[in-house]
Write a structure and sequence with these properties.
Layout (H helix, E strand, L loop, with lengths): L1 H18 L12 H21 L2
Helix pairs in contact: 1-2
Keywords: Membrane, Transmembrane, Transmembrane helix
C-alpha cells in the first residue's frame, strides 16, 4: 500500500514540476518527465502485482 501511495506522490510531483511557473523550480523542470514516467511505471507495476497476487 505504501508503494502505491509513494508512486502517486511521485507522479503528482512530476506533474507539478511540469506545470509550475515558480522560478525556484526552473532547475528542476528538466526532471519533470522523469518523475512522471517513474510514477506511472511504478504505479502500474504495483497495481499489476497487487491484482496478480489475489
Amino acid at each position: 500500500m505504501f508503494g502505491i501511495i509513494l508512486a502517486v506522490v511521485i507522479l503528482i510531483f512530476g506533474i507539478f514540476l511540469k506545470i509550475t511557473k515558480e522560478p525556484e523550480f526552473q532547475n528542476s523542470k528538466k526532471f519533470a518527465w522523469l518523475f512522471i514516467l517513474l510514477g506511472i511505471i511504478t504505479l502500474a507495476g504495483k497495481l499489476t502485482l497487487l491484482f496478480l497476487n489475489k
